[in-house]
Amino acid sequence: MATDTRHKPSSRSGAHGRPRRRKNPLGVFGAMSHIALVIWAILIIGPLLWTFLASFKNNTEIFGDPITLPSSFGWDAWGRAWEKAHIGQYMINTVFVVVCSTAATMLLGSMAAYVLSRYAFPGNRAIYFLFVSGMTFPVFLALVPLFFVVKNLGLIDTHLGVILVYTAYSLPFTVFFLSAFFKTLPTSVAEAAMMDGCSHTRTFFQIMVPMAKPGLVSITIFNILGQWNQYLLPIVLLSGNVEDKWLITQGVANISTNAGYEADWPGMFAALSMTIIPVMIIYIIFQRQIQSGLTSGAVK
Amino acid sequence: MRHGRYRFIVGFLAAPVLLYVVFVISPYVQAFYIALTNWKGVSANPQFIGLENFSRLLDDEVFWAAVRHHGVLLLVMPLVTIVIALFFSFLLNLSGGQKGGQMSGIWGSKVYRVIFFLPQVLAVAIVGVLFQTIYRPDETGVINGLLGKVGIDPVGWLIDPNIALLAIIGVMVWQAVGFYVVLFSAGMSSIPKDVFEAAALDGAGRYTLFFKITLPLLWDTMQVAWVYLGIAAFDAFALVQVLSVDRGGPDNSTTVLPLEIWRTAFNFSKFGYASAMGVALFFMTITFAALTLRVTRRERIEF
After folding, report:
1. Taking the model in full, what pTM does it have?
2. Across the interface, which of A109, A284, A294 has its CB nearest the CB of B120?
3. Contacts of residue B124 in chain A, CB cutoff 8 Å?
4. What is the pLDDT of residues A225-262, one digit of tens each?
5. Segment B190-200 mean pLDDT
6. Per its UniProt entry, which superkingdom is the organism in (chain A) (predicted)?
7. Interface contact flag, A298 B225, Cβ < 8 Å
8. How confident is the model at residue B97 (pLDDT cuts 50, 70, 90)?
9. How many other CB atoms are found less than 10 A from the CB of residue B68?
10. Structural domains of chain A sorted by starting position, each given as residue range(s) with its CATH number in brackets
């Protein structure tokens, strides 16, 4: 291929005035790579689109030919999913839990990270490693005792219990990430503020937090997504007879089991679409921050 | 001043440390002790039985099935994901030829990146429910419906014990690839442009560019990817719990340790035994992470 294209400069390299090797973006390789990329894109979008369309179909259409459009577009199934399958309730519960726990994670995590990265005191390293070590343990190791710790505090089957546990398990990575971030910030601004008589606490909230905004945004997104998508902790901590307190992931997983008995498949696909679409919209709006937020942990 | 400083430190650390010790550290520490007891429920008094749980583990077929599945996951899932992700990120970042002296991605690379990353933001449990209908074993399933159109008999994706685990791995790869495309893209964009320019001037083709230049310079990122994917291979709980037949079936052909821990503890109330499995899982994860970092250690290339 290289020898073929050498004497046929593509429009791009032609613009540079001299023919170079392998500059033709529309060669065989280019076409093949486009095909590979398009196939993967279809593999991603296909199932999601199919789910969305299936929410408008009836049972016969759903289990018939996979590539057909629904005969009519009605929102009955969506109504059933929202009301009867309590998707609305689960959604509100999840938003409440995630908002509280992310806020608590960010507040406590940034406070701890700030003190650990900026203040020398005996035991500083010990506390830091205590936090960081939490990243290496699989949560399944703690599962049984965690259940009983929460139970003994009387917090089992309550949202408060879930919020506290989410916060605690989000702290290791948050502290690790943010203390690295606080270290990169210049010390002079905070020192100047202290000279002017600003207290430690005020320096933190009014000077350091605004300066650390990019890092805080990344890690907030990371925590929101991680907590929103959590499945194990809700099914363990809200395992009693408290369906009205369930979170979205366990709700949807449960509907999929029930859809078989009640034969309401359109309702199930409506429920799935309802949980996927808001996340997709938020993702498309914030896709750059989300991509960097989620991968920043790996790059550090 | 000094007094205020310590008060401030203690004030800022008290709440996070307390929360963390109560809900994270204390359960981890307790788990090691509970693993040495025969605790079987809330009322029964746990007895210290030493390593009995662990010797029972050695004879437990389901436990070994789960360990084997982690082995398969660990071999197949990271490898497939990394190969696909590397291929795509190379296409998206470096294969578009040169534009104004800079390496550029293929046309439309931004759109592809957005689409590929999308499954990453979906909850694993939701993805599991989604794929239940896609993998349905008769013609009512999406894949089998499509296969039927070209005259291929339905495949029992999740009900055939020989392929059920691979079908689940397929979903994990489907979800993970986009994340690593973005990760590798970040790695590739941090490689100085003049390296590629110099190589291209010397007449390096796409293959040389990929295997001799990009890959070695991306080694650090790949190591991170391998550790991440390996840790994910020791999890797989949500997907197997939601997607597989009978939670880990058919015939335990897809079960994984986290699922067994959850089931042993919360369905069978064998808390001691479940914790022993947790300890086993912990040592496997730690060994894997340590080995990976050790084996893949290389001379760091500075640029």
Report:
1. 0.86
2. A294
3. 229, 231
4. 889 889 999 999 998 888 889 998 988 888 877 766 66
5. 80
6. Bacteria
7. yes
8. low
9. 13
10. 2-80 (no CATH), 87-299 (1.10.3720.10)
Q: pLDDT digit string (tens) for A196-224?
A: 888 888 888 888 888 888 889 888 988 98
Strand partners, B99: B102
**Domain extent listing, chain B:** 60-295
For residue B145, which residues of chain A lie inside 8 Å, CB to CB? Answer: 65-67
Q: How many CB pairs under 8 A join A and B?
A: 284
Residue ranges of alpha helices (H) inside B218-256 are 219-233, 237-243
Which chain A residues are closer than 8 Å to B183 by Cβ?
Answer: 295, 298-299
CATH architecture designation of domain B60-295: Orthogonal Bundle (1.10)
The per-residue pLDDT for range B10-22, each reduced to its tens digit, is 989 999 999 999 9
**DSSP states of B133-192 as a string?**
HHT-SSTTSHHHHHHHHTTPPP--TTTSTTTHHHHHHHHHHHHHHHHHHHHHHHHHHTS-
A2 and B205 within 8 Å at the Cβ level: the answer is: yes
Name which of B96, B125, B178 is nearest A253 (Cβ-Cβ).
Answer: B125
B46 DSSP 8-state letter: P
**Distance between CA atoms of B291 and B230, rounded to whole angstroms?**
11
Length reported for chain B: 303
